[in-house]
Amino acid sequence: MGECNMEEMSLPALFEQARKIHLSVSESGAVDQEAVRKGCEALGKCEEMISKLGLFSANETKDDISTTNLKYLLVPFYLGELTEKIVRDDRIHILKASQAKLKAFISFCESMELLPEEELEASTRGGSDSFVYRRARKIARFKRQRAAESKLLEIKERKERRGRSAKAATLSTPVEAGEEDVLDDDGEEEREAWFTTISLAICKAMDLLEMLKKEEEILSAIKEKQSKEGDKEFFLDLLDDRTKKAEAWHRDAAVRAQYTKPARPITCAAFAQDVLEGRAKVSQAHEHKHQPLIFGPQSLVGGRLTSERERMAAQVFQPGFRLPTMSIEEAGLKEMNMMNKWQERNAKLMEEANSAWYKDSKKPGPSNADEDDEDDDAAQEKARAWDDWKDDNPRGAGNKKLTPCG
């Protein structure tokens, strides 16, 4: 809209246009500075028209304001939010202007008895709140915000339901049950919706005001430090330092990523020498397979043997002894495997030799020796008793009375 069009627009149309701009800017990720400028201009014009028309008075309360004028209470809140999104070099000036609009909105809501009791108590306490109290206040504010959003959603659904009922009535179709009583409640419902929107705006304004105060304190401290040190390029140096740190971190991460999975150890001396002298790379596969040496003229050995004739000519000048079939590294690996198998077999044999059944079957314990000694003593006593009995009772002594001549 151009300047002439804004001058000719009415207050409701101008407010609706500014509200749509505010909604689009709040929902979009990238802030369009041209849209922000138009929204601030439209809201400033709305503020001027509200002041000229005298829609609100300091002696009024929320019950005295008409339903059609309730929405204009949100003008300073919308203007404060859009002002905060302006991008300029003098950020502190933008923060102060935004805070001024938000404070005006909160102050007017307080005079209209729209501010919750918790926020009133916080304003009377000032800056002497403890951490626990601030945390409890933030939690209560968040709960109020969620309740207001749920209520607005419920009102929107009721309006859609009423619209469907009205359309059904115009088509002479039966109206759904439960929707006949809400056909005449447009005024009350609209008033409730604006009060809920104002309550939600108060919660957002409180959070935004605290955030802007902290940002202003940080920027003021940096500006004061800059003025003391006399460094005009303070922000540029700070940005360069952060950029260098980020680039160094990414470079280190890229280097570390190459060694996240360690390479296989090199066990071949010839391959290690090739890597050191640049003829091979660590990442190349190597299976310890070496080609036999080729002896002969330098013209044949140094060049590439492309034909079978050249290969046969090179093999003519071979040594008189047999060449090795494996390298020292391959022989070592083979011997190591043999030793591992031998150690595993010996460990298995030792485990079997130390098992319980082997000890019981091969080596009697001390209890067995004691039992053998006891058996030997008993046998010896029995033999002695038998000898004594035979001495007392000679052979045939018991049959003398039975003989005829006895």
Q: How would you sum up this structure, described in words?
A:
By secondary structure, the chain is an all-alpha fold. Helix content is 67%, strand content 0%. It is built from 15 helices and no strands. The chain has helices at residues 3-8, 11-27, 33-53, 75-84, 91-111, 117-125, 131-170, 186-229, 234-258, 269-276, 298-301, 308-314, 328-353, 356-362, 366-392. The longest helix is centred in the middle third of the chain and has 44 residues, at 186-229. The radius of gyration is 52 Å and the shape is elongated. Mean pLDDT is 76; it is low at 177-184.
Offer a few descriptive terms.
406 residues, mainly alpha, 0% strand
Shape: elongated
- Give the strand content: under 5%
- Number of E strands: 0
Calculate Rg over CA atoms: 52 Å
The description of the largest β-sheet is:
none
Mean pLDDT: 76
Proportion of residues in helical segments = 55-70%
Tell me the number of helical segments per DSSP (H or I, 4 or more residues long): 15
| H/E series | HHHHHHHHHHHHHHH
Structural class: mainly alpha
Calculate the terminal CA-CA distance, rounded to whole Å.
166 Å
Low-confidence stretches: 177-184
